[in-house]
C-alpha cells in the first residue's frame, strides 16, 4: 500500500500527544489500584509505556521512576529480537526478568503486548513492575552469581493468543515466597496492557490513523530536536569526573566518566571504571544507561516528555566486564548501590559548564533493610523498608532532608512496619549536623533504631552506602555526615547478611547531603534559624 | 405567627458571599450576592442577610435553620495565617512531620519546593510513652515528661497544641490521658488529639492532619463564635449548621472541635448541588464539571452522591501537582482541579505544540478582549473569535468584548505556529477541551470506571461553553445544564442531608475477626455518629445508617471502599461480607487475584438524615423570546446559528444544534447534531450524536 506520510500541525499533535499520555496514565492508575506490591503502590516502582512497532517509545506514564524510564523501551526492543513481528499473534503477552535485557535485577518483571490493527503489528503496550518476591537468596549484596538471586525468566510468552502458559505460571509459583502476590501483580500488569491496547484502538479509530509510524516519527523528532538544541547550547569539549564508593569496604570501587559534548551530541564513556565484583552490586548496562540518561536530562531538558527521540543524541559506552557493564553470570540485585551514583558523575562533568543546574552530592544510594523469617503462623515472610538521606545543596538553596533521589521511593510508615513485621522502631529522627555545611547546606539524614521482637530469628540484610565516602560538597561547600550501620551498637559490614535474635537492635543512620558554596557566606539569619531549630548544633564549620 | 418555614444558606467564597433563602412551603428561593469582607467575614454575612431580607420583606423569625459553608479555613492554611501551634509526639518521633513521605513530586527538578511543616522543629516536643501496633500499652505515659514538654511550648508562645502518639488509632488511652493532663495544666489552651481528629494508621498523615486541625482551631473558634452572636443579634434564633468537606452537615460544637473537616465545605456544597440537579433529570451517574476563569473543577457523582475521598491535600506548592501539598486524612467530596479556565493563556511550547494553561490571565488584566491591558491570547479570546460569545452582552451585558484585540492576540500565536488565526482560535478551544477531558479520563480511571458511563453536568461561566465538546471527547452522550448555576453552591447547602462519618482502623483479616467484635466496633462508631446527627436535627428525625470498609486482598497495599450490608453481624454474616467485598472489587477490576484472605483495614460508618422540606419549586416557565442569530465558526466556515435566551425557553421546548442558548452569566453551545430539551424541572438536557457520527463530524474543532 502506497503511503503518503501524514504531517501534524501544532494543534493536532498536541491533541494526539495528550491523548497518548492520558492513556498510559490511565493504565498506570489501573496498575496501582490492582497491584499487591507496596513497591508499586506506595513507591511507584513501575512504569507503563507505548512503543511503535519497532519498540521505539512514544509515551511513558507520568508516574515512573527514572530507572524504568530508561530500561523499559529497551526491553521491548529486546523482545523483538527474540520474537520478530511474524512470531507474534494478537493476544500474546511477552515476559522476561532477564538481568541484562530487563532492569539489572530479577525482581523487576517486564511484560509487553503486541498490538495489531487490520492484521498488522502497529504498537506494543508494555510495563515493568517490581514483584513482591522472585525467590532466591533474600535481597542483599551477598550473592556472587545471578543464579543465587532467584528465578530467571528468559524472554517468552506468558500468554499465547490470550491463553496463559500454565507451565510457566506453575514454575513461577513454585519458585517464589509469595506465589499469590507475585502472580497477582503479574495479572495486574496484564490488565494495564489490555487497557492501553483498548484505548489505543479507540484513539487510532477516531483520529483515522492506520498505524503509528507517522505519529511516532513526529513526536520522536520533536523531542530529538529539543534535546539536540539543548546540547548544542553547551560548549563542546570532553569533561571528566570520578568518585569512590564504599564498594566492598576493604575494596572501594572507583567510577570514572568522560563526557564529550560534540555539537548536538553527547557521548558518555565509563572507561577506567573498576571491574565487576563477585557481589550483587554490579550495575548492568541497561541500568547504567537509564541512570546516565536521567542525569543528562536533569541538566539539559528537565521538562521534555520522555520518548525514544530524547535519547537518540546521547550514547553510553562502558568496557565489558567493568562494574557498570558486568557480564554473565554477574549478580546485580543491589545494583542501585552503584547505579545511584551515576547521575552524580554526570553532574561532575556537566557542572563544569552549567554549574547552576547541578547540586552537591546526595545521601544516596537509597538505604534499606530487608528482613525475612517465619512468622508466628509458620509462614515465610519477607519485607523491605526504605530510608533516605539528605539532598545536596544547590545554587538556589539548601538540600531537602530525607528525600529519595535519584529514585523516588517513599519510606514505609513506622506504624505499617510494626504491623507487618515483629519489630519495634524506637526512633526515626533527623540527624542534626549531618547536612554538609555550605552557603546552602546539605539536607539532613535520619537515624532509625529498630529492635527485634520475634521469637524466631530474623535474617536481615541492607542497602547502605556512603559509610566511608560521604556526600561531597561543591563550590566550596563541605561534605555531609557519612552513613552508619550498627548492630547491637557495633559497627558492621553493611554488605553482609546478619541474623537478629529477640531484643537485638539495628541502628541505621542515613548520610546527609553535601553543602553548596563557602559556609562562611551562609546568611546569618539562615544559620540562626538552623541553630534555633537544632538542625545545626555546632556553628564552628560556619566560622562563627 | 406561622411555624418557621424559611431555610437560609450562606456560602462565603473568595470574592462573593452568596445568601440564599428557601421557602420550604413553596419550594421558591431568593438569592443575593454580597462582596466578601476578609477582615471580618461575619460582617459580609450579616449585611448580605439583612439586604436580602429587606428586599424580599422576609422575617428573621420565620427562619428554621441556617446552613453555612466557607473557604476561610482553607485560605488561612494556604496563607499560613493560623495559630502558633505546638506538637507533642511519642519520644523519638518529633521529626515525623518534617521527614514526611520522603518522595518527590517532580522527578527532574532539583529545586522543588516542599511545603513547610505547619509546626517548626523548635515547637515540636516529645513525651515518654509507647503503645504497640495491637493497642497494648508497652510503656505507660510519663505525665511528668508531658507536663514539661507542654510547659516549654507554652513558654514559647504556643496558642494551640496537637498531640500525636504512635498507634493511637488502635488505643487512644494515652492521648486521652494527655488531653486531661493538659486541660488541667493549661486551661483554655486548645488541644487536638490525633485519635479524635484522624484515628487512622500511618503516622505522618495522621500527624499532618492533627497539626492542621490545631493550626486553624483558634481561628475557627473565634469566627464561628462571632458569627453565631452576630446572627442572634440580627434576630436569627434558628440553629446554625456547618457544611463539612464530605458534603454532610454538622452542628457548631462538632465543627469547632474538628474544624479541619470544614476545609472543603464550599466546593462540597457545589458538588451536592450538582448531584441534586442531576437527580431531578433522573441522572444519578454524573461528572460535575465547573469551569471558571482560572480553573475547572471536576467531581464524580455516582448513584446520586458525590464521591467522597478519604485523603486531601491542602496548600500545594504547585497547584495542579499531586504530592506537592500537606496531606490530610479527612473525608472530602473528591474534586480535581484542572488548570483550564476562560483566562488560560495559549502559547507555543519548546516543541512547537500549542499549549493552553495552566498560566492564566485571571480577571486582571484578563483576556485580551477585555481591553484591560492583557495582551496574551486566552481561551475567552479564542471563543470570541469562534462566535461562541456575544461581544455586546458578555457577563449579563455589563462588559463589552473587543474582537479586534482578541484577533491581534490570537493572531500572534497563530503566526508563530504557522496557522491561520481562525485555526488557532479553534485550536485553543480544542486543546483546552482535551486538557479537561484527559484529566477527567485519568481521574475516572483511578476509580476503575469509564467516562462513557456518565452524563456531564456543566456549571460556571465556562461549563456550558465547553461542555458538549468535552463530553464528545469523553464519549459522553448526555449533557445537563441546570438553572440558577450562579448560586448553585448555596442552594446545595439547603438540600444537603445532615451526615456524619466515622472511621476506625482494624487492620485484621476476615478470618481473624470474630463477628461479635466486628459488630461491636461498628456499633461504637454508629452511636458516636448518631449522637451528632441527633444533636443536629433532633432525636426524632429518621436516620439512615450505612456501613462500609476499606478492604483488600491480604497482601495488597491499596484498599477499595466497599459498601457493606446492614448489621447486626453474626456468624452468618461472614459470607455476605465477603461477597460485598468481591462485588466491589469486580465492579472495578477485570481480574480477581488468586488470593484467599480478605482484610479489613478501616471500617467506616456514615449516618445521615434529611432535613425537612428540602425540595425545589418544579418548573420555570415564561413566554419564548427568540433573540436572533450569530455567525459561528464550524469546521473553518462561518455558519449563522440561532441564539436563544434561556429565560425564554418553556418546559418541553426542543432545540436542534447548532444553536446557542444564553443566560446572564454563560452561553450553552449546542454543536451540530445535538438535541436539547427543556425539562419541567428547569434543566436543559442535551443529547449528543452517537460516537461514530461524532468522529466523522468534528464540531467546533478541526480534527482530530
From TrEMBL, chain A:
Task: Return one Gene Ontology term, BP aspect.
Answer: glutathione metabolic process
Q: Which residues form the Hydantoinase B/oxoprolinase domain?
A: 9-519
Alphabetically sorted, this entry's keywords are:
Hydrolase
**Stretches for region Disordered:** 512-544
Composition skew (Gly residues), residue ranges: 512-523
The identity of this protein, by name, is N-methylhydantoinase B
Q: One MF term in GO for this entry?
A: N-methylhydantoinase (ATP-hydrolyzing) activity
Keyword Hydrolase in annotation: yes
Cross-referenced Pfam families: Hydantoinase_B (PF02538)
Species in which this protein is naturally found: Roseococcus suduntuyensis
Signal sequence segment: none
Under Enzyme Commission nomenclature, its number is 3.5.2.14
Hydrolase as a keyword?
Answer: yes
Which cellular component, as a GO term, is one annotated location?
cytosol
Query: Record's superkingdom?
Result: Bacteria
UniProtKB/TrEMBL annotation, chain B:
Q: Where is the Hydantoinase A/oxoprolinase domain?
A: 206-500
Keywords for the protein's UniProt record, in alphabetical order: Hydrolase
Q: What GO CC annotations are associated with the protein? A: cytosol
Top-level lineage group: Bacteria
Q: What is its EC number?
A: 3.5.2.14
Hydantoinase/oxoprolinase N-terminal domain ranges (all copies): 8-184
State what protein this is by name.
N-methylhydantoinase A
Q: Which organism is it from?
A: Roseococcus suduntuyensis
Annotated InterPro entries: ACX-like_C, ATPase_NBD, Hydant_A_N, Hydantoinase_A, Oxoprolinase-like
Domain Acetophenone carboxylase-like C-terminal, which positions? 543-678
Gene Ontology BP, a term = glutathione metabolic process
Cytoplasm recorded as keyword: no
Task: Kindly list the GO molecular function terms attached to this UniProt entry.
Answer: 5-oxoprolinase (ATP-hydrolyzing) activity; N-methylhydantoinase (ATP-hydrolyzing) activity
Asked if the record carries the keyword Hydrolase, the reply is yes
Amino acid at each position: 500500500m502506497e503511503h503518503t506520510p501524514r504531517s501534524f500541525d501544532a494543534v493536532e499533535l498536541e491533541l494526539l500527544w495528550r491523548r497518548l499520555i492520558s492513556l498510559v496514565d490511565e493504565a498506570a492508575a489501573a496498575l496501582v489500584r490492582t497491584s499487591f506490591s507496596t513497591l508499586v503502590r506506595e513507591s511507584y516502582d513501575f512504569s507503563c509505556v507505548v512503543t511503535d512497532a519497532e519498540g521505539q517509545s512514544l509515551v511513558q506514564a507520568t508516574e515512573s521512576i527514572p530507572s524504568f524510564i530508561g530500561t523499559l523501551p529497551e526491553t521491548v526492543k529486546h523482545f523483538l529480537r527474540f520474537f520478530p513481528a511474524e512470531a507474534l499473534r494478537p493476544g500474546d503477552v511477552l515476559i522476561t526478568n532477564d538481568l541484562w535485557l530487563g532492569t539489572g535485577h530479577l525482581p523487576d518483571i517486564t511484560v509487553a503486548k503486541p498490538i495489531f490493527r487490520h492484521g498488522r503489528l502497529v504498537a506494543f503496550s508494555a510495563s515493568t513492575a517490581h514483584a513482591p518476591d522472585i525467590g532466591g537468596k533474600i535481597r542483599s549484596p551477598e550473592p556472587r552469581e545471578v543464579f543465587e538471586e532467584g528465578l530467571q525468566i528468559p524472554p517468552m510468552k506468558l500468554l499465547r493468543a490470550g491463553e496463559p502458559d500454565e507451565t510457566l505460571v506453575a514454575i513461577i509459583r513454585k519458585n517464589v515466597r509469595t506465589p499469590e502476590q507475585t502472580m497477582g501483580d503479574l495479572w495486574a500488569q496484564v490488565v494495564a496492557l489490555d487497557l492501553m491496547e483498548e484505548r489505543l484502538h479507540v484513539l487510532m479509530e477516531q483520529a483515522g490513523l492506520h498505524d503509528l509510524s507517522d505519529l511516532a516519527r513526529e513526536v520522536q523528532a520533536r523531542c530529538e530536536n529539543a534535546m539536540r538544541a539543548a546540547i548544542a547550547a553547551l560548549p563542546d569539549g570532553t569533561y571528566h569526573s570520578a568518585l569512590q564508593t564504599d564498594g566492598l569496604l576493604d575494596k572501594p570501587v572507583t567510577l570514572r566518566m568522560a563526557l564529550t559534548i560534540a555539537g548536538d551530541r553527547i557521548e558518555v564513556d565509563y572507561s577506567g571504571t573498576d571491574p565487576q565484583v563477585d557481589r550483587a552490586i554490579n550495575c548492568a548496562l541497561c541500568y547504567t544507561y537509564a541512570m546516565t540518561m536521567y542525569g543528562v536530562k536533569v541538566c539539559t531538558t528537565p521538562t521534555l516528555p520522555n520518548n525514544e527521540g530524547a535519547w537518540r543524541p546521547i550514547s553510553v559506552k562502558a568496557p565489558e566486564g567493568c562494574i557498570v557493564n558486568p557480564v554473565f553470570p554477574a549478580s546485580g540485585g543491589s545494583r542501585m548501590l552503584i547505579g545511584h551514583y551515576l547521575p552524580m558523575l554526570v553532574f561532575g562533568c556537566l557542572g563544569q559548564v552549567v554549574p547552576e543546574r547541578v547540586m552537591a552530592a546526595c545521601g544516596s544510594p537509597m538505604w534499606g533493610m530487608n528482613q525475612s523469617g517465619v512468622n508466628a503462623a509458620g509462614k515465610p515472610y519477607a519485607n523491605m523498608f526504605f530510608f533516605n538521606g539528605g539532598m545536596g545543596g544547590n545554587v538556589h538553596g539548601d538540600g531537602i532532608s530525607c528525600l529519595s533521589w535519584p529514585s523516588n521511593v517513599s519510606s514505609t510508615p513506622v506504624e505499617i512496619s510494626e504491623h507487618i513485621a515483629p519489630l519495634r522502631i524506637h526512633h526515626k529522627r533527623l540527624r542534626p549536623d549531618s547536612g554538609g555545611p555550605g552557603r546552602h547546606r546539605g539536607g539532613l539524614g535520619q537515624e532509625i533504631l529498630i529492635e527485634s521482637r520475634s521469637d524466631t530469628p530474623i535474617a536481615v540484610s541492607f542497602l547502605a552506602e556512603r559509610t566511608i565516602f560521604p556526600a561531597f560538597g561543591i563550590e566550596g561547600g563541605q561534605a555531609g555526615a557519612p552513613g552508619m550501620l550498627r548492630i547491637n551498637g557495633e559497627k558492621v559490614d553493611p554488605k553482609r547478611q546478619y541474623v537478629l535474635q529477640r531484643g537485638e537492635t539495628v541502628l541505621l543512620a542515613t548520610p546527609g547531603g553535601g553543602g553548596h558554596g563557602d559556609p562562611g557566606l551562609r546568611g546569618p539569619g539562615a544559620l540562626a534559624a538552623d541553630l534555633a531549630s537544632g538542625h545545626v548544633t555546632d556553628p564552628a564549620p560556619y566560622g562563627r | 405567627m406561622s411555624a418557621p418555614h424559611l431555610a437560609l444558606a450562606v456560602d462565603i467564597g473568595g470574592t462573593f458571599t452568596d445568601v440564599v433563602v428557601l421557602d420550604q412551603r413553596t419550594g421558591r428561593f431568593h438569592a443575593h450576592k454580597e462582596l466578601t469582607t476578609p477582615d471580618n467575614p461575619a460582617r459580609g454575612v450579616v449585611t448580605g442577610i439583612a439586604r436580602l431580607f429587606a428586599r424580599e420583606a422576609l422575617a428573621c423569625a420565620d427562619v428554621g435553620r441556617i446552613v453555612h459553608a466557607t473557604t476561610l479555613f482553607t485560605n488561612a492554611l494556604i496563607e499560613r495565617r493560623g495559630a502558633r501551634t505546638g506538637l507533642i509526639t511519642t519520644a523519638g518521633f518529633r521529626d515525623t512531620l518534617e521527614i514526611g513521605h520522603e518522595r518527590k513530586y517532580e522527578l527532574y527538578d532539583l529545586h522543588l519546593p516542599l511545603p513547610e511543616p505547619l509546626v517548626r522543629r523548635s515547637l515540636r516536643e516529645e513525651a515518654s510513652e509507647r503503645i504497640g501496633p495491637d493497642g497494648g500499652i508497652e510503656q505507660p505515659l510519663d505525665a511528668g515528661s508531658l507536663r514539661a514538654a507542654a510547659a516549654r511550648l507554652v513558654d514559647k508562645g504556643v496558642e494551640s497544641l496537637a498531640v500525636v502518639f504512635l498507634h493511637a488509632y488502635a488505643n487512644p488511652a494515652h492521648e486521652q490521658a494527655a488531653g486531661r493532663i493538659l486541660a488541667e495544666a493549661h486551661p483554655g489552651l486548645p488541644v487536638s488529639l490525633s485519635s479524635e481528629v484522624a484515628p487512622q494508621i500511618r503516622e505522618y498523615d495522621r500527624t499532618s492532619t492533627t497539626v492542621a486541625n490545631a493550626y486553624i482551631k483558634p481561628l475557627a473558634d473565634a469566627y464561628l463564635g462571632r458569627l453565631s452572636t452576630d446572627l442572634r443579634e440580627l434576630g436569627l434564633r434558628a440553629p446554625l449548621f456547618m457544611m463539612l468537606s464530605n458534603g454532610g452537615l454538622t452542628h457548631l460544637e462538632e465543627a469547632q472541635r474538628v474544624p479541619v473537616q470544614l476545609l472543603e465545605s464550599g466546593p462540597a456544597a457545589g458538588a451536592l448541588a450538582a448531584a441534586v440537579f442531576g437527580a431531578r433529570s433522573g441522572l444519578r451517574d454524573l461528572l460535575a464539571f465547573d469551569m471558571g476563569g482560572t480553573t475547572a473543577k471536576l467531581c464524580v457523582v455516582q448513584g446520586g452522591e458525590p464521591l467522597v475521598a478519604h485523603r486531601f491535600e491542602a496548600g500545594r506548592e504547585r497547584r495542579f501537582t499531586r504530592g506537592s501539598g500537606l496531606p490530610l486524612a479527612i473525608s472530602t467530596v473528591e474534586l480535581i482541579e484542572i488548570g483550564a479556565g476562560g483566562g488560560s493563556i495559549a502559547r507555543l511550547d519548546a516543541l512547537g505544540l500549542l499549549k493552553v494553561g495552566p498560566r492564566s490571565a485571571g480577571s486582571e488584566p484578563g483576556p485580551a478582549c477585555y481591553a484591560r491591558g492583557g495582551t496574551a491570547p486566552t481561551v475567552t479570546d479564542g471563543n470570541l473569535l469562534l462566535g461562541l460569545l456575544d461581544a455586546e452582552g458578555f457577563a449579563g451585558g455589563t462588559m463589552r468584548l473587543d474582537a479586534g484585540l482578541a484577533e491581534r492576540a490570537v493572531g500572534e500565536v497563530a503566526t508563530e505556529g504557522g496557522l491561520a488565526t481562525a485555526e488557532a482560535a479553534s485550536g485553543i478551544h480544542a486543546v483546552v477541551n482535551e486538557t479537561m477531558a484527559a484529566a477527567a479520563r485519568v481521574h475516572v480511571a483511578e476509580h476503575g470506571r469509564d467516562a462513557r458511563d456518565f452524563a456531564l453536568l456543566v456549571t460556571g461561566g465556562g461549563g456550558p461553553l465547553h461542555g458538549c465538546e468535552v463530553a464528545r471527547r469523553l464519549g459522553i452522550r448526555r449533557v445537563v445544564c441546570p438553572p440558577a448555576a450562579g448560586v448553585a453552591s448555596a442552594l446545595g447547602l439547603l438540600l444537603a442531608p445532615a451526615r456524619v462519618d466515622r472511621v476506625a482502623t482494624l487492620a485484621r483479616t476476615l478470618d481473624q475477626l470474630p463477628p461479635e467484635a466486628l459488630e461491636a466496633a461498628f456499633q461504637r462508631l454508629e452511636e458516636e455518629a448518631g449522637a451528632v446527627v441527633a444533636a443536629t436535627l433532633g432525636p426524632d428525625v429518621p436516620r439512615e445508617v450505612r456501613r462500609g470498609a476499606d478492604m483488600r486482598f491480604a497482601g495488597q497495599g491499596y484498599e477499595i471502599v466497599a459498601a457493606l450490608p446492614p448489621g447486626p453481624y453474626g456468624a452468618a454474616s461472614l459470607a455476605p461480607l465477603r461477597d460485598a467485598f468481591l462485588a466491589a472489587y469486580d465492579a472495578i477490576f477485570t481480574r480477581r487475584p488468586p488470593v484467599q484472605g480478605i482484610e479489613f483495614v478501616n471500617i467506616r460508618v456514615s449516618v445521615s438524615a434529611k432535613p425537612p422540606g428540602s425540595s425545589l419549586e418544579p418548573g420555570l416557565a415564561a413566554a419564548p423570546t427568540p433573540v436572533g442569530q450569530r455567525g459561528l465558526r464550524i469546521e473553518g466556515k462561518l455558519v449563522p446559528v440561532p441564539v436563544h435566551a434561556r429565560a425564554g425557553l418553556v418546559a418541553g421546548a426542543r432545540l436542534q444544534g447548532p444553536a446557542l442558548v444564553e443566560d446572564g452569566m454563560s452561553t450553552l453551545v449546542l454543536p451540530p447534531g445535538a438535541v436539547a430539551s427543556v425539562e419541567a424541572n428547569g434543566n436543559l438536557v442535551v443529547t449528543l450524536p452517537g460516537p461514530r457520527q461524532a468522529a466523522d463530524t468534528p464540531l467546533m474543532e478541526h480534527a482530530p
